[in-house]
Design a protein that fits this description.
Shape: globular
Number of strands: 9
CATH architecture: 3-Layer(aba) Sandwich
Largest sheet: 7 strands, mixed
Helix content: 25-40%
Low-confidence stretches: none
Distance between the termini: 64 Å
Number of helices: 6
Strand order of the largest sheet: 5-4-3-6-7-8-9
Strand content: 25-35%
CATH superfamily: Vaccinia Virus protein VP39
Order of helices and strands: HHEEHEHEHEEHEEE
Radius of gyration: 17 Å
Number of domains: 1
Length: 223
């Protein structure tokens, strides 16, 4: 079996055994995960585990989220073809590649220039031309290019980022993993911006992953 066929089979198995079994049912989301070669976005020594349903370490404590978690978050956003979505913490570009066929524009935010260089090369390989990259502190949440109709954060946050809420358009949605303390359980939450002053929040399910750089709990001082 050639590498292309083997990769396609592994993606098919990922969708059937990891995504569909965790209630990911949106056809366009499944199609995106079925078509994007995950192994392209991981280090050479991790390619053999590219389709394991677990976080994959990239470098410097950064990961690609496990496929079933990532897919459930993307599905929760209920993305539309005309929308602009902010992808916070895109690392080497996989998360943005997944979003690319689902929306009009993806703004990929990443603080690590080396990651973003790899991401751009990966997107070019796949002919994904609706992704705009931004190198910036991720905690700023891309406000200079706001507003967005949807935002996804690729890692846990200790609190809902106020900067992300400001960057959302009215009726926009934010999906993130809320984990207030290091020893607490993480919950995937979906936040909708009702108007300029108010939001609604739904807790979707429990999960566990590390904090994204810039969104860790504030250090507590002990006297």
């Amino acid at each position: 079996m050639d590498n292309f066929s083997e990769s396609a089979d592994m993606r098919k198995n990922m969708v059937e055994c990891q995504l569909e079994t965790t209630n990911v049912t949106a056809p366009k989301v499944l199609d995106s995960f079925r078509s994007v070669p995950r192994e392209l976005f991981v280090p050479e020594d991790k390619k053999h585990v590219a389709y394991v349903d677990d976080d994959i370490q990239i470098a410097d404590g950064r990961v690609l989220l496990e496929p079933s978690l990532h897919a459930r978050m993307v599905q929760a956003l209920d993305l539309k073809p005309h929308e602009a979505v902010l992808d916070i913490g895109c690392t080497t570009g996989y998360s943005s590649a997944i979003l690319s066929p689902l929306v009009k524009t993806v703004v990929a935010l990443e603080s690590n220039e080396d990651f973003l260089k790899q991401a751009k090369a990966n997107w070019e390989t796949l002919s994904l031309y609706n992704i705009a990259s931004v190198t910036s502190s991720m905690s700023l949440c891309g406000q200079e290019h706001a507003p967005y109709t949807a935002i996804i954060i690729n890692g846990a946050v200790s609190e809902i980022p106020e900067a992300a809420l400001k960057a959302l358009d009215v009726n926009g949605r934010l999906c993130c993993i809320l984990k207030p303390k290091h020893d607490s359980i993480g919950n995937v939450v979906l936040v909708q911006k009702i108007d300029t002053q108010n939001t609604s929040r739904i807790t979707l399910f429990e999960t566990s992953t590390g904090y994204l750089e810039g969104f860790e709990p504030k250090k507590e001082f002990v006297f």
